[in-house]
Design brief:
- The chain is α/β, with parallel strands linked by helices.
- About 40% of the residues lie in helices and about 25% in strands.
- The chain contains 9 helices and 12 strands.
- Strands 3-2-1-4-11 form a 5-stranded mixed sheet, sandwiched between helices.
- β2, α2 and β3 form a beta-alpha-beta unit.
- α7 runs antiparallel to α8.
- The longest helix is centred in the last third of the chain and has 27 residues.
- The chain is globular.
- It starts with a strand and ends with a helix.
């Protein structure tokens, strides 16, 4: 019997995104690669909508929204009951390349020192623009960032290798390693739990491996529609709370001080990026059709 990989997709009031994600995963599903949808206490009928389209999909229904970390941990416990050997945590607002999971799992199989494998991730509505091409983390200077973010994809981002941290948008692990580090820390909110997981995996002497042959598209900008400024402020507040908790947990006080000092600059840069995106063509129907065409082409 081949080792079984389970992909855990966490849903909360997001049936439309989740169904699109599952449609992209339809060609992936096989006896050796299965999908679990964890419904995190949705109140919009998501679970019924998903079941109507994917009648045979494995689902775990949680009674309330317990957050990203706890929801995924619950999903992990369920796939362990289903004899998973590898687990991939995948955001529901993503579209995946056909066979995206294979390079991730092969990296873990081939490299015994690899603790996490993470794909190249693009913006969904700018499908040739990187969202994640690796992760930089230096807690001592308060620096946490994605490699290549907002840059056009070029050959320099096609080199696999060790990186600083994996994004929780999509990451793959051996189940025994995820279990050994205790899963996601549920004291985190929406942000920084992935950096914390990566740091704890690294503390075991394992590496975080960037695998660019695995490709995912993330609907990042879509969450900024509507009252852009208000949503940006809320996002930055939640992100800052998570990252401050990260510094506190790892007792990196100088990094925390530097992070707070540079927070106004981060706000200004983020606001400028949102305004640039909002004023550009990315939300027009033609551009979205281009995005879908490029993703389907791969």
């Amino acid at each position: 019997m081949h080792p079984v990989t389970w992909i855990v997709v966490l849903n909360w009031n997001g049936a439309e995104d989740t169904l699109a994600c599952l449609n992209s995963l339809a060609g992936v599903m096989s006896p050796s690669c299965r999908v679990l949808v964890v419904d995190n206490g949705s109140t919009d009928g998501s679970a019924v909508s998903i079941r109507d389209v994917f009648a045979d999909i494995e689902m775990l229904l949680l009674p309330a929204n317990c957050g990203y970390a706890a929801g995924n941990n619950a999903g992990f416990r369920r796939v362990m009951e289903l004899h998973a050997e590898y687990v991939i945590f995948l955001n529901n607002d993503t579209i995946v390349d056909a066979g995206f999971w294979v390079p991730l799992v092969e990296t873990l199989k081939r490299n015994s020192s690899a603790g996490i494998a993470v794909p190249k991730i693009f913006y969904w509505d700018r499908p040739d623009t990187l969202w994640y091409g690796g992760g930089n983390v230096r807690l001592s200077t308060g620096h946490i960032s994605h490699v290549g973010i907002r840059k056009k994809d070029t050959p320099e981002f096609n080199c696999p290798g060790t990186t600083g941290y994996a994004t929780g948008c999509c990451l793959a692990m051996r189940c025994r390693d995820f279990n050994a580090v205790g899963g996601f820390d549920e004291t985190f909110g929406m942000y920084a739990e992935d950096v914390d997981l990566s740091l704890r995996v690294s503390s075991l002497g394992l590496t975080i491996e960037y695998v660019p042959s695995s490709r995912v598209w993330h609907k990042v900008s879509g969450s900024l529609r509507g009252n852009t400024v208000l949503k940006l402020i809320k996002k930055l507040v939640k992100k800052s709370v998570g990252e401050l908790h990260l510094f506190r947990k790892h007792r990196v006080w100088n990094g925390m001080a530097l992070y707070l000092l540079l927070l106004p600059l981060r706000l200004a840069v983020s606001y400028g990026e949102v305004m640039r995106v909002k004023d550009s063509e990315v939300y027009k129907k033609g551009r979205v059709k281009d995005a879908e065409h490029i993703q389907n082409r791969h």
